[in-house]
Amino acid sequence: MTDQRFPLPTAKGTLPIADSHLFPDLLPPEAASELDALFRRHLEPYVGVTDDGTPRRDLYRLDAAGTAPRAAVVAAEAYLDGLAPHQRIVGALPMDATEWRLWTNAVPTWHPKGMRLERLAESDRDRALAVVEASLSPAGYAQVRAAMALNANLGELIDDYRDTLTEFAYWFTVFGTPSADSPWGWQLMGHHVDLHCVFVGGQVVLAPVFLGAEPTTGTGRFEGVRAFDEETEVALAFRRTLDADRAGEFLMGPSLRAEDLPPELAGPWNGRHVAGAGGDNLVLPPEGIVAASLTADQLDGLVDLVRVYLGRLPPAQAERDLALVREHLDKTRFAWRGGHDDECAFYYRVHSPVLLVEYDNHPGVFLGNPEPARFHVHTIVRAPNGNDYGRDLLDQHYRLHHGGR
């Protein structure tokens, strides 16, 4: 299968990947070190993404407001009940398991726990996906499924890695005991799809989230499948409202071409984004224009962009999170790198005390484009200052109900 819209690989089969496993010992040392870094870091004491290494406190509020969909509990119970005992041993882990923080947007270099969807019977796989669907908004679930489908499209497009670039090469893990009252959650992990969903105190925490696609539009039997239109177009619309005479406040650089970037931002694996896998304790000083300094119309544009990412959550939780973001607009910054015409690649970041969003166009990993292009997108969402994986709310819950952990 070929498609003239996308460049085919310059060399096929050059990465040591087989059956959804990456063998780092067969990579050059520099690449192996970068791709395996997250595995080395996942046992470090958790701090969270911070401005300076010290989390801000009292940002997240635990209460019993019922924004968590009860349908997710029912779906998770049905999924677990359908698994064989040996499957539940590896597919259902304790709430405090270290595997929460063990994930990759690339291909794992370890043997993940959790059930690999394509190894499940179709009925069991449907029940696993029903948990994801019941936990998200319809738009959020549709985007996850589109990214999964586009992963398979990529394998067909390049006719390579056909045991890895598939629609269901993803590991699904339930943490804790699904309950309307006690904390629990799930992780879906694999290439271009990493979601961490925690239910605590009637709330839903969806962070970290990594969603991406290469390419972002389907071909062949995936014709009509699309991803990241809003993340791209809403951002461009907002960027075009920003005043040129304030570019020094928000523009990190005019180009994403490798020759125009510092070496640490020009690599093929992470590109410009800094908060991906292994970045749980990232220290990220705020950069960009302060949201509260924007005009009313510009601020509306930024809020519209934030809504795109929060819109993956159930509607009640999305509105709750948006209200929290609004409380911190004086500490929220927006930064952009690249152009803003109809074709050029770009990167942007929204950095709030309670929300971190990154969007990046990448060069080809499996496709052959050497420079970043619009048809390869990575997005990241985190809850800074200690609430990734719902950690801040979980700590509050355990102190309130169990005297701490």
From TrEMBL:
Name of one Pfam family that matches: DUF3500
Protein name (Swiss-Prot/TrEMBL): DUF3500 domain-containing protein
InterPro entries: DUF3500
Source species, domain of life: Bacteria
Originating organism: Umezawaea endophytica
